[in-house]
Amino acid sequence: MDELPDLRMLFHRLNNQLGIILANAELLEAKTTDATNRPRAAQLVASALDAMGTAREIRRHSNVSEA
Q: Are 2 and 64 in contact (CB under 8 A)?
């Protein structure tokens, strides 16, 4: 089962990257004032959260515990 530590590391890296994307998207959303770009920034936040949820589901279905 050498692949489990590798999968845990990949999930850890993915979550770190998605966390950075989410933080920047939230910052962009908070600082954006014009009516055109604010919904776009909100969509970035929602998409990052959705991607994090998808990663969690994949991890759950692959029976890999959180590192």
A: no
Other beta carbons within 10 Å of 25:
20
pLDDT digits (tens, 9 = 90+) for 10-33: 999 999 999 999 999 999 999 999
3-class state of residue 62 by DSSP: coil
Q: Are the C-beta atoms of residues 67 and 12 closer than 8 Å to each other?
A: yes
Give the distance, in angstroms, between the CA of residue 54 and the centroid of all CA atoms in the same chain. 8
**pLDDT score recorded for residue 66:** 57
Angle, nearest 10°, between helix axes 3-31 and 37-61? Answer: 160
